[in-house]
Design a protein that fits this description.
Blueprint: E1 11-17, E2 27-28, H1 33-38, E3 50-51, E4 57-58, H2 63-70, E5 74-81, H3 89-98, H4 109-117, E6 127-130, E7 145-148, H5 163-178, H6 184-203, H7 206-209, H8 220-233, E8 240-245, H9 254-278, E9 285-290, E10 310-315, E11 322-324, E12 344-345, H10 346-357, H11 363-366
Parallel strand pairs: 1-8, 1-9, 5-11, 5-12, 6-7, 6-8
Antiparallel strand pairs: 2-4, 3-4, 5-10, 9-10
Length: about 375
């Protein structure tokens, strides 16, 4: 099991930018006149972009991430996508979640990673989702994952303090939904409930152990990143964290909403990295941010519509900052039906993280062998 030499396990934090983030207004080709030709209404002014080099710059609301770039801790993964892109939110997100683009995948890539990290399911907190429900990315048979809406109040029957009474409640729960005692489904539900109780009891200790000088903003992504920091600093053995923010589905009013969204995300991950640094954990976590697709190259007058070819980000103390992948051409003869043409399969990023960071065999999880990036050292 990979550690960083300080006894702490290497952790992965995945942030889903739900709705289809506009890559062109996130990493801006500010020196390319075609950008302004195709985006007469929905563009970022050349002098407002935060320069990464002489051609590309970050959205001006991404100041915290620009600070990470300046410190060599932000990798920008351009031209990311998959063959035969789909502009449906549901299908494209499913592709990213399962690492399967040709058919409907059965298990999530992170669920499989969690199972490989903890094959005997010894720790019910190996994977934790901060949000409602269970994202497909985290589902795999035999991989328990806790989904936490609010860390402060998380739990199953949290108001029942007596263990004997909670056992009765679980038994009643399993009978209600699983049939008679001894029934396989009833036993499964009871075991799942017991695991949930165990995980809830442990997770609820994290805020009590936590102290920090970092003040997170009062918005969902910031509070979820704070919760992740609380669990990470409590050293509960969690290896994979997941959360999401949105909606980046900016068909209208994009300039205002996209600015707000990126300000919230950038500040949240910036505060998170400051928090980890304060606790001596900055080198123990990699944050990976992705969206299901990019947006059309031409604006629609008020926003942008569903496209392909996007951008992803990796950041952390162990990340080698820089530009990875080729920025797609805006030339009309090189576009894909008005979209950015992907040139960088997202499973290359997954393979890099799985192999070089988590120490896993990436091939069965990504359903193939993909060229890896150098944003994490071998």
């Amino acid at each position: 099991m990979k550690t960083n030499g300080n006894g702490h396990h290497k952790s992965l934090v995945v942030v889903q930018l739900s709705g289809g983030n506009d890559a062109l207004n996130s990493v801006i080709p500010y020196a390319n006149p075609l950008y302004y030709d195709f985006r007469p209404h929905v563009h970022i002014a050349e002098d407002a972009a935060l320069p990464l080099d002489d051609e590309l710059g970050l959205n001006p609301s991404m100041t915290a991430m620009k600070g990470l770039w300046d410190d060599g801790k932000l990798a920008v993964i351009n031209g990311i996508g998959y063959p035969n892109p789909n502009r449906s939110h549901f299908r494209s997100m499913d592709v990213w979640h399962t690492a399967e683009s040709e058919k409907i995948g059965e298990e999530g890539w992170l669920g499989q990673a969690i199972r490989d990290l903890d094959p005997d399911s010894e720790n019910v907190l190996t994977g934790v989702n901060f949000g409602r429900g269970l994202p497909r990315a985290l589902y795999a048979k035999g991989a328990p994952v806790a989904s936490v809406g609010n860390l402060e109040t998380y739990g199953l029957f949290p108001d029942i303090q007596d263990e004997r009474l909670r056992a009765y409640a679980l038994d009643a729960f399993s009978r209600m939904y699983g049939g008679e005692a001894g029934d396989n489904v009833a036993q499964f539900i009871k075991q799942t409930g017991s695991d949930a109780l165990k995980g809830a009891d442990v997770l609820r200790t994290a805020p009590q152990q936590y102290s920090s000088s970092v003040e997170y903003a009062d918005n969902p992504i910031a509070q979820n990143m704070k919760s992740i920091a609380q669990v990470m600093t409590a050293d509960l053995g969690t290896r994979v964290y997941y959360t999401q923010h949105g909606s980046f589905d900016t068909h209208a009013g994009e300039l205002k909403s996209h600015t707000r969204l990126w300000s919230e995300v950038s500040d949240a991950v910036g505060d998170f990295m400051d928090d980890l640094d304060e606790h001596g954990l900055a080198d123990d976590a990699v944050v990976f941010m992705f969206s299901e697709f990019g947006r059309r190259i031409r604006d629609n007058g008020a926003g942008t519509d569903h496209g392909s070819g996007g951008v992803a980000f990796a950041l952390g103390g162990a990340v080698r900052g820089g530009l990875y992948g080729e920025y797609p051409s805006l030339d009309e003869d090189k576009q894909l039906e008005g979209d950015l043409r992907f040139n960088n399969d997202f499973r290359s990023a997954y393979s890099t993280i799985l192999d070089r960071w988590l120490g896993l065999d990436s091939v069965p999880i990504t359903n193939g062998t993909y060229e890896q990036h150098d944003f994490i050292a071998k």
